[in-house]
Automatic annotation (TrEMBL):
The chain crosses the membrane at residues 33-51. It comes from the Bacteria. Keywords: Membrane, Transmembrane, Transmembrane helix. It comes from Chryseobacterium muglaense. This is Nitrogen regulatory IIA protein.
Length: 92
């Protein structure tokens, strides 16, 4: 675990030294670019949620189920049917 922590610390120090080696003007440009990218992604997510929630005007009604629709067919268990048939054949 210590080796992993040392590798992470080393990579962070290396990245920080690269960042500090950049001129201040370029650091500001990178910072502005990252902020603009973050803002665009945030606005896109907010717009997406607003758009999808705006389309769902229908309210789902929850109530008691009165009966099964006629077009649904209930299948019986074939294993139980075969056992019953085999028992009927064995009995005299």
């Amino acid at each position: 675990m210590k080796k992993l922590q040392l590798k992470i610390n080393h990579s962070i120090e290396k990245l920080e030294s690269k960042w500090n080696a950049l001129p201040v003007k370029q650091q500001h440009q990178f910072t502005k670019g990252f902020f603009i990218g973050y803002a665009v992604i945030t606005l896109f997510a907010i717009f997406s949620v607003w758009f999808t929630s705006g389309q769902s005007w229908k309210i789902l009604s929850i109530g008691h189920i009165n009966n099964i629709p006629k077009d649904i067919r209930i299948q019986t268990n074939t294993v139980q049917n075969s056992v019953i048939q085999s028992q009927q054949k064995v009995s005299p």
